[in-house]
Amino acid sequence: MREKEGTAVPTTPPSSSVAVWGVSFAGALRTRWARLSLPGNGGGGGGGSRAVDEWTGQRASQGPGWLGFLADASDLLAGTLDPDMVPALIAQIVVPRLATWCAVYTVSSDGEPLDLAYLWHADEGQIDGLRAEIEEVTIPSVENLTPVPIQLGDWQSLAFPLVARGRSLGMMCLGRAGRFPDDAAQLAEDLGRRAALAMDNARLYAQQADANRALQRSLLPPGTPAETPGLDYSVVYEPAGENNEVGGDFYDLFTIGEGTWRFAIGDVCGTGPQAAAVTGLARHTLRLLAREGYDVTAVVSRLNQAILEEGERARFLTLLHGEIRRTGDGLDLSLISAGHPEALRLRPSGVVEAVVSSQSLLGVFPEAQFTADHVRLEPGDVLLGVTDGVTERRSGGRLLDDEGGLAKLLAECVDLSARAVAERIRRAVQDFAIEPSADDLAILVLRAEPR
Predict the structure, then answer these.
(1) Residue 145 exposure: Cα atoms within 13 Å on the Cβ side
(2) pTM exceeds 0.85, yes or no
(3) What is the percent of the chain where pLDDT is above 90?
(4) What domains lie within the chain, and their CATH numbers?
(5) Contacts of 159 (CB under 8 A, 6+ apart)
């Protein structure tokens, strides 16, 4: 029983037989408590003892302690967007403050009967027995919008609907040894509304995350060539952060004929659906026009026009696009860098040099004209293309590519395979700063295989 500060501290035990009793203090409230033996194990008591609160007639909503409890519960529920974690939080918040046990049910995706998502008991040893009992009980329909009593052994049990934004999400079932005081039921009902909102937020977040991941997968190439005689290549792609935004970086490498390949690595301004639309347009246009026989200059020019035709939805795009031909002992490349970070060539001697001139980025100037640079990769030469998630990786006031940082990293990669070079660059980006990267990252490495 909770008593206001200033009342006399009780010195006599409860009238009923108890094993242990006492008085505890919390701020301005004193709580008189008793540990009672519960009959039978049909109610999950197992003949043991449980702490039972003796509620006063005062409304729970008027008690500052319960207002703090609701505030803390809301903070905990808002702290996760994992749909599988929310039911567990609900149950562990409720037990033992409001009930001896709590079962949280959720609506199944196929509309079948409710699924038991989580079960918690103040005595963990009773959970398995309680689960067996609960499986024999019919849970009320989620269409009920008010608490509904359920019959479960010797327990006094109530089922509270979990409804948010007009959508029924499940039920929260509570059980205790004695009658539910009105204040406890009102508090549980209030908590149920907050819990339902947390469940719905987590559900919506998970759906958006799944959609974004599906969209991201659709923007990546369906595959890279299985066999590339004379060409050793590797690609790395990592979307940034944990916000599930669709990234704007992309890459591609595909065959257009015997001993001839096309490649691309690009970065669309921004993230999200609008950036994804330009990413998809770019990747599919590059492949389609290449298969139609257009050279790299014509492909980039037409892609620029296609982006401009998107109108207000258009986003500018930086792109490194080229064609690779196997000739003799090496590779001949025709390259266009449309506002993209410079491509670097590594010689077996350790010399690193930029090999293409930067031209207009795409989606800005209708009159832009493009010309291809021709580059020769001798056996052992490496060509590196990256997005600005590499060059603009920030640590304090420094960028990774300050003072030719990327070229210095590449110079350390002599005699490494394409895969080893890509991994070395990726690891350097990761280690450059403590905090996670805020930008997507794409790395493309092409290496002429030695004789």
Answers:
(1) 5
(2) no
(3) 41
(4) 63-213 (3.30.450.40), 225-448 (3.60.40.10)
(5) 139, 140, 144, 147, 148, 149, 150, 171, 172, 173
